[in-house]
Amino acid sequence: PELVPSPVVAPVTRADTGLPRKESLIAADITIEGKIEGSGSVRIAGRFKGDASVEGDLTIEAGAKLTGGVRADKVTIAGELEGNVEEASHIELLPSGVVIGDLKAGSLTVAAGARMRGHAEFGWDDGKGAKSGSLTVAAGARMRGQADFGWGDGKGANAGKHGSDHGTGSGLGS
User: Fold this and answer.
1) How far apart are alpha carbons 100 and 112 in whole angstroms?
2) What pLDDT is recorded for position 14?
3) Which of 3, 6, 43, 110 could make an SS bond with 141 (beta carbons 3.0 to 4.6 A apart)?
4) What is the dihedral of CA 132, 136, 141, 143, to 10 degrees?
């Protein structure tokens, strides 16, 4: 029999969607206590107790709970966070999201129905380069605590500060 070489097949190239390609999942029926560190993204559908520090995104699904500190590029909260987001470029609180703790990010989006008790800082220039900050709060979102925002020299110049003891609508007191 004569051997015929197989045709060369070009590798399939994946379209760059801009989304991270590596994501770890803590499933809904899993409870973990410890520490998460890495360069990928993490999606929590179960329960996690400990600190999470990732270079990618961190998502807390509806029904999930994270108790501890968070550092990630983008943090999306549909479940419950009991702890602080110590550093993020963007935080998004979805309608079912609950935060008991402080948030620090370049920008913050709060959907109607979301709840927060704590302190939020966004848009500050912390000496690592200018951050463009924004706050988007949907009508019906509830926040108890304080939100600080601004820009400038990292010392709070040109900054605004609003506090609330149970604001609705914009989520911030006047």
Assistant:
1) 17
2) 40
3) 110
4) 20
Under a CB-based contact definition with an 8 Å cutoff, are residues 25 and 41 in contact?
no
Place of tokens 């990292």: 154
Element (H, E) at 13: none
Tokens of 92: 């998004």
Angle CA(119)–CA(105)–CA(149) in degrees, nearest 5?
60
Question: Sorting pLDDT into bands at 50, 70 and 90, what band is 22?
Answer: confident
Q: Which residue has better confidence, 52 or 146?
A: 52
55-100 pLDDT per residue, tens: 999 999 999 999 999 999 999 999 999 999 999 999 999 999 999 9
The dihedral region occupied by 20, where left means phi > 0, alpha psi between -120 and 50, and beta the remainder, is beta
What are residue 53's DSSP bridge partners? Answer: 37, 71
- Give the containing element (helix H, strand E) for 69: none
